[in-house]
Amino acid sequence: MDPRALELLELPAILDRLAAEAASEPGKDRSLALVPSAEPDEVDRLQSLTGEAIELFERSAEPDVADVRDVRHTAEVAARGSVLDTAALRSVGTSIDAATAARAAIETAGGAPGLEELAAGVDPTLVRVSEPIARAVEDDGSDLRDGASPALRRLRRELREGRGRITERLRAPARDPSLREHLSEDFVTERAGRPVLALRASARGSVPGIVHDTSGSGQTLFVEPFAVVEDSNRLREAESAEREEVARILRELSRAVGDQADGIVSLVEAIGAIDVATPEMPQLELPLSGRVLVFSEAHDSNLCAPPTPPPCC
Predict the structure, then answer these.
(1) Which of helix, strand or coil describes residue 156?
(2) Enclosing domain of residue 78
(3) Could you report the per-residue pLDDT of 65-74, keeping only the tens digit for each?
């Protein structure tokens, strides 16, 4: 269709409004990509979907798809062997859970064969991917949970205890009146990942240890006392082991996502189609008093009243 004609019909404004009322990221993107159809059967199908959505809204809550993100690219890169970070994994897991819940809601409500056909694109067995993610990744996607694996729980406990032990041993000199006057600062800091005390350069011999850094003026030395070197070494080993365990878990979860990439892509596309058919009805459909677009046998359309936004596109 002539783009100029679509502009005169204010189609971009209609699509902007439809996208604004879509609940999910895939629904918003799909709304903006809609184009009018000249095929009567396709128009009838889309209008039937909207009719089902209105009926579904009137007798039950519409499916909640707000947490579904467009994770198609994420799934595809995982399928190519990339390791996903915790935020990406959490988006995949949340999207799967929201999509499978939406499918279940549509099927439970019944009476909407068109929507049920779209929902069939959501494979409920994908929860086998989302459940391990939910167990392993924090709700906000910021990090792995300590309980992501028994080994990670043990290593993080060792790290907490080790850091606490080293900090306490370094605070002892800071509380010693004979040493306090030689310290530039009375708190423990780090240099090159090692715990150190800030010691005045003039008192270098008062705390035997390894100098890891100096201040810009040269008046302060950052010294790791020999008394904590062994504990610090053990802490570095635990940190290395913790990083390796985190990497292993992320690889395992990412591999599971990649193995189901096709199903995740299908899920996103199905939810986008459902969302377009079921926008926020109270805000969009019902106030506009949309009517069904009727075709004659000659396929001439009756535009006496504004069509319902989703089917006309």
Answers:
(1) helix
(2) 3-140+259-312
(3) 999 999 999 9
User: pTM here?
Assistant: 0.79
pLDDT in tens, 268-284: 999 999 988 876 554 45
For residue 308, pLDDT over 80 is answered with: no
CA nearest to 260, candidates 117, 83, 125:
125
Tokens read off for 97? 């859970």
CA 61/CA 56 separation, integer angstroms? 7
Token pair belonging to 295 = 């075709």
195 part of a folded domain: no
Residues near 260 by beta carbon (within 8 Å), at least 6 away in sequence: 75, 123, 126, 129
% of the chain residues with pLDDT over 90:
44
CATH number of 304's domain? 1.10.1420.10
Tokens 């062997």, residue located: 81
pLDDT single digits (tens) 108-158 = 988 889 999 999 999 999 999 999 999 999 999 999 999 999 999 999 999
- Tell me how far apart the alpha carbons of residues 72 and 31 are, in angstroms, rounded to a whole number: 17
Say if residues 129 and 92 touch (Cβ distance below 8 Å).
yes
- The pair of structure tokens assigned to 278 is 């079921």
- What does DSSP say about strands 209-214 and 189-191: parallel, antiparallel, or unpaired? unpaired
- H or E segment and range at residue 223: strand 220-225
Residue carrying the six token digits 């996103």: 268
Tokens 């043990």, located at residue:
154
